[in-house]
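hey m, so remember when u said the tokens were messed up on ur end? i reran from scratch. heres the input so u can diff it against urs
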Amino acid sequence: MFASARPTAISMSTRRTAGKLSRSIQLALDGSTAPLIKPCATHFLQQHPAFAGRRQFSSTPRTLLKEVFPPPANAPNIKLTGPAWHHPVYTEEQMNAIVVAHRETKNWADRVALAMVKLLRFVVDTATGYSHAKEAAKRAVDPTSSASWFAMTERKWLVRFLFLESVAGVPGMVGASVRHLHSLRRLKRDNGWIETLLEEAYNERMHLLTFMKMAEPGRFMKFMILGAQGVFYNGMFLSYLVSPRICHRFVGHLEEEAVLTYTRAIADIDAGKLPKWNKLEAPEIAIRYWNMPEGHRTMRDLLLYIRADEAKHREVNHTLGNLEQKEDPNPFVSEYHDPSKPHPGKGIENIRTTGWERKEVI
């Protein structure tokens, strides 16, 4: 998995060891026989026939490329299976107004949630070879260092997106399933939380499916995803049983990091650091899901839509973390006595970067 090296044990006890692990993983990116990702045959190569003789994502032979989501083999009467949840319409003005934000900690529960996010961020950064701040600092000192280890390329961004989105769909599903069972046990309504959490998990999975149309994970990345999902799902499940409020605050801070990640990727495109994405069109699955209009279907437009989704999840989870977990209704699907007054909703027209306080909505 790590090129020609096969360590029997890896210690994460020091930053030096973590750095060695990160570099070993990067070897897989740059030409090992088990690449982290390989191009999707039906999207990238169709848009870039000039790359027919070159492989910028992987050294996997072209004969091994396959359709990531082939149509059902035995369903002649089915033309198309659309999304179960239709995505709200975002305007360009609304998406450009999304900003990086951070909710300050107010109590011990908030501090626990933030500490767990920082730990997870360190693990994911190490696994995906990401260190945007260090790369920017190096360029400030030496502009010729753009090819350094810390430079983010199209391939490294895709590796990060694929890994993050494979994990990001877990919390919503865990929260929805726990609350569903809780509602059955108590023989009481859930007041609308389950639907919103399921929709969040579905939305994150659509992000993953979109990126998989651009680059299919290799065996090593699939192994990483399998391990991360096993640990993260069970950890979230146990944590949600103990304190749903901390879990929602954790996800809110996690989405803050997601907004930051996509903002930096968009900035890299604008700065000309990702030339392969300048004219790359979004996959058809993304165009249909987000109803992307003609003339606004580039890779940059796609990242704007996804960043807006992450900002919405940031708002939702910070708001849910402010509520009474067992009794309060979900303010994002509720009707209000005064609809003219700004209130939470499914769209981003009234989005609050750090969530709504309970007294504002309940």
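this time it looks ok to me. Strands lie at 37-39, 215-217. if urs says something different then somethings off w ur setup not the seq
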